[in-house]
Amino acid sequence: MSSVGLLIILVMYLALLFFIAHWAEKKRNSKWTNNKYIYSLSLAVYCTAWTYYGSIGVAADSGLSYLSVYIGPIIIIPAWILILKKIIRISRVNKVSSIADFISLRYGNSRFLGAVVTIICLSGILPYIALQLKAISESFHLVTQTVSNKFIFDDSTTYVAIALALFSSYYGTRYVDASEKRRGIVTAVALESILKLVFFLMVGIYVTYFVFDGFEDIYQKASLLENFHKKNTIGGLPQAINWFFLCILSIFAIFLLPRQFHVSVIENNRENHINTAIWLFPLYLLLFNIFVYPIAWGGNVLFDGKSVNSDTYSLLIPQFFGNKVLTVLVFLGGFSAAISMIVVSSIGLSTMVSNNLIIPYGFLGQLQNENQDTINKKIVNTRKVGIFSLIIISYFIYRFFALDYNLFSIGLVAFVIIAQLAPAFFGALFWRRGSRLGAVWGIIVGFVLCLYTLLIPYAIGISSAQTTFISKGLFGLELLKPFQLFGLDYLNPVPHALYWSLLFNFITYVAVSVSFKGNYRERNYAEMFLDINKYITNHENAFVWKGTAYRTDIEKVLIRFLGEERTKRAMNIFNLKYNVDKNEELADARLIKFSENLLTGHIGTASAKILISSVVKEEKITLPEVLKILEESKENIIINKKLIETSNELQEISAKLQEANESLIRKDKQKDEFLDTVTHELRTPITAIRASSEILHDDDDIPDDLKKQFLQNIISESDRLNRLIDKILDLEKFETGKQKVNLSNNKIVETIEKSVEPLIQLINNKNISFYIEGSHVLEAYYDEDRIFQVMTNLLSNAIKFCPDSNGLITISVNDRIDHILVQVSDNGKGISKNDFENIFDKFYQSTNQNFKKPIGSGLGLAICKQIIEHHKGKIWASNNVTGGACLSFTLLKNKN
Amino acid sequence: MKKILIVDDEPNIVMSLEYTFKKNSFEVFIARDGQEALDILQSNLPDVIILDVMMPYVDGFETIERIKQNPKLNHCKIIFLSAKNKDSDIEKGLSLGADAYLTKPFSIKKVVDQVFELLH
Predict the structure, then answer these.
(1) Sequence-ordered list of residues with C-beta below 8 angstroms from that of A616, at least 6 positions apart, any chain
(2) Keywords, A to Z (chain A) (predicted)?
(3) Does residue A669 belong to the interface with chain B, where contact is any CB pair within 8 Å?
(4) Cβ of residue A692 closer than 8 Å to a chain B Cβ
(5) ipTM given for this complex
(6) Phi/psi of residue A892, nearest 5 degrees
């Protein structure tokens, strides 16, 4: 394939990525760019060109060693649920924008420590980026079958590097606040993750099933090669230990590599996306590794005896068989893997360089005298130039330090350097006593050991200078041989360097931390980092600070960096959150922390601290004082929490009380009404009795027939009084549950007929037509005496409501699935709809009666309702289609 | 001959009152609820009205309001005779313009005395 042709494809591919990034940036809140899958896939930036090409090389040359790099992450990923969540919370709350910020914040906004971490990252990652460029360049030349041009500007890969640098610096610095999310980049990276996996699987399937006849075939052919068995055994305990160290190394890498920190922490939108990542990301790694072995050994079989770079088998095999399309696709996959690493790493690094190196050490002083626009421009430009130069510098590293080592070993060297951050980093999360000095010295000592045991010997190897440093040791001392330090001779160079550097790093960190206490700020942040869950909602409270500061001074600083409007908005939020009066003159600790946070995203934590402390007068606080204040604030938080809980409980109780009270009032009112009506109902017959008696007593000359009439009145009113008392007691018994019902199976129609008997005279007197419809065999489960009572009541009502002529009463008994339905209909005026429910209330007398007050007491239907409900039946009122009221009730057929 | 209208839905109570006032030489009209009373008042102008409160259809309170709207009935003395004996009920009755409020059960003698007192 021609260089121009491939370049055109590359440009088109880059244009696609530009477009995706642009689109995602525009749709930054859409669910397409903002979901758990995008997050999980973006983590696969872990799989670089090193994975894509280098794994195959390692598998071909030394068997299973390549796996350790994937096993490490898979082992530790479940712990993300705890650890990564904690890191994300701390970073979110404190507006952390890089791993350097994270570490330096914990150790008291240390400017120096931030710079040290940045330098470590630079020295580890720049060669790593160079490695990616090397992969792009070599694969480019391989696909186009050209050779690398000695003159740098004639080499097409130079332009690829420049294009990449432009792309990253454009999209990596859209926001001044580096803790902002970059949706565009992340979405593009996720897309690249998919592409590189798909293309890799394609070539894997191609090699396994089209070039060979499946896994079995490859294995059989490969096992005939010499060295096969040697390469594919672990190699005893020493090699197992090597393996173990490599696993440990990659465990650190998944947390500490700037690009991993960036995608997993800074770009994390929601904590629960982790829940998806912990299965999807390992699955991704697994898929990526399925075909590594077949391709590697397939390549070994195909190219046995030829001198080819095993790293490039995945390109060489399709090319060997003339499959141009697949060759290009594989190349694009590798290109994706490389550029996603380059882009994310360079963004992370440039943020570190600007926020932890250039701004705090360079022009922080200058910035203080500029206005907001200039400041923002300067910051963004610093980062833009930073990204661009990082990539270009890496390219030069690749070009001028030939980097003869294979991809795998350079990648591991980067890992070892980055691993030096491990003690300080994990100490930040789990150890209160860890101090700034401990962290600084630990990292430096570790790095020096790295230099001695790994970088210098490798550099010597590259330069091919004649020296006895490696074989005889420094000054010819056996114990100081860089690859067998202190006589440790069974580890490979990388695990060996890791072991010694981390050991000394760790010991130094612990020893210095224990010997020299940190200042109060370190201890303050230690508490916040360790107990982040406690402080997450109002972490400003946990910040200890004493001194005098004027709000106006602080606001001035903020305005310079954030602009007037954002500062105003932020201050409003602060005032609201902590209920602070906006006219308050003095700033408190919370405002100091709040303001530092606002600035941190722009200029890094160290600079933020320096800036704020330039306008405030801080008093020294001793460590015990800090601890005391923290203890108090912790207690306050707990007390606060308890208070809130208690007050919630109280509120609940008071709501319940109010409800109970209302229901009492309602019941009380009902009781009042009930008593009112009862007394009225009782007084009425008494009144009649008293009046009649008085006349009989006082008047001696009443005619006999009238005398009899008055006496009759007294008798009937007394009876009425008695009936009323009976009914009230009845109702009372039902309502308090004292009334027992004696349930048994009875023939319902018979009961109805019995209840009609005493009333038949009344019915006949009023000339009412009367019918009972229903089968005599129907049985239901009820207390006959009680249903008798119900029927009497309903019938009396019906008789009462029937018109004076042509009255009609129908009782129908219907068989339903599990119950019997009884309906009593009349042809009276019917019931007003409003009354359907109320007529079953005690003493309720319809507002719509056009006849005189009914003879009843107003308790009849209330008692009926009680009786029916005690039978687990229902009773209701309705109107007939033809007019007239219809009262219905149901009775269960059987016991259940 | 003085005229009296007795408005009550309890026939036995009405009977006692009717007997007593007739004996005291009144012309007695009887209504069994507010509406009936108002109908009677269309064509008759009694001197006294004895009014129950709790009655179906149109109760005593509503009846007195309607009576008070008719200027022809201004001279009518109105006595409530009710089982509702709470202070609030009595107050309401008197505030609606009743001349007296007697509670049930009552002494017939006192009712008669009250009627005569109002008429003199």
Answers:
(1) A547, A548, A549, A553, A554, A587, A592
(2) Coiled coil, Kinase, Membrane, Phosphoprotein, Transferase, Transmembrane, Transmembrane helix, Two-component regulatory system
(3) no
(4) yes
(5) 0.92
(6) -65, 145
Outline where A45-110 has alpha helix (H): 49, 55-62, 68-76, 83-94, 99-106
Report the number of distinct structural domains present in chain A.
5
Inter-chain contact A694–B56, Cβ cutoff 8 Å?
no
Residues A465-468: contacts with CB within 8 Å, 24+ apart? none
Q: Are A827 and A882 in contact (CB under 8 A)?
A: yes
- Tell me the whole-structure pTM to 2 decimals: 0.62
- Shared domain for A856 and A774, answered yes or no, is yes
Q: How many CB pairs below 8 Å do chains A and B form together?
A: 75
Report the C-alpha gap between A882 and A884 in whole angstroms. 7
What is the per-residue pLDDT across A236-275, written as a single tens digit (0 to 9) for each? 777 788 888 888 888 998 899 998 998 899 888 888 888 8
Homologous superfamily (CATH) for B2-114: Response regulator (3.40.50.2300)
- Are A198 and A276 contained in the same domain? yes
**Per residue in B2-43, pLDDT tens?**
899 999 988 889 999 999 999 999 999 999 888 889 999 988
Helix (H) or strand (E) holding A879: strand A875-879
Angle of helix A215-223 relative to helix A292-302, nearest 10 degrees?
Answer: 50
Residues in A closer than 8 angstroms to B32, CB to CB, are 852
Cβ neighbours of A713 in B, within 8 Å: 12, 15-16
Strand-strand pairing, A779-782 and A744-747: antiparallel
| Residue span of the structural domain in which A439 resides | 421-536
Report the C-alpha gap between B92 and B94 in whole angstroms: 6
Q: Are A826 and A885 in contact (CB under 8 A)?
A: yes
Mutate to test the interface with B, among A676, A678, A684, A707 (most CBs of B within 10 A): A684
